[in-house]
Amino acid sequence: MPNFSTASADKLITCDLRLQKALNVAIKSVDFAVTCGHRNEIDQNSAFLNGASKLKWPNSSHNSFPSKAVDIAPCVGGKIDWKDADRFKNVGFFILGILAGMGVEARLGGDWDRDFSTTDEKFVDLPHIELLA
Predict the structure, then answer these.
(1) What digits encode the pLDDT tens for the residues 62-113?
(2) Is 111 helix (H, G, I), strand (E, B) or coil?
(3) Closest to 78 (Cα-Cα) out of 11, 23, 22, 3
(4) d(Cα 127, Cα 33) in Å, to the nearest integer?
(5) Angle between helical axes of 85-101 and 17-26 (0-180°, round to 10)
(6) Cα–Cα dist 30/25, whole Å
(7) Element (H, E) at 101
């Protein structure tokens, strides 16, 4: 059974408890890393400048503490394939399903409009999962 590395666990504890609970359920079924939880001002503005975010500090869901957003990356054999968009979508939607089962509204950064299509988005951020309330 997969489990979180120390680095993933350290990032996860910066997230809202609902995200923590959902990801702790998900890791029992699928291997993934937590790549980002809370972002401070320097990290958020860096993400904006390098194109990883469309928002400057303090406007991202990553900027609250605890963070209302988390970035994840699926692992296969302990490695992340950043080009495997299908795997990112599958794991992201799997986690959204867990959150929905908890009664928590959230969205995937590859499906901002929540229509279950990832082909109609102008900005695709597949690692990103954010709470809506």
Answers:
(1) 999 999 999 999 999 999 999 999 999 999 999 999 999 999 999 999 999 9
(2) coil
(3) 3
(4) 10
(5) 120
(6) 9
(7) helix 85-101
Q: Could you give the CA distance from residue 80 to residue 90 in angstroms, rounded to a whole number?
A: 14
- For the record, the structure tokens of 129 come out as 């999962």
CA distance 76 to 89: 15
pTM of the model: 0.96
Amino acid at 133: A
What's the token pair of residue 58? 């303090």
Q: Order of strands, edge to edge, in the sheet holding 32-36?
A: 32-36, 69-74, 128-131, 106-108
One-letter identity of residue 58: P
For residue 102, the cross-strand partners are none
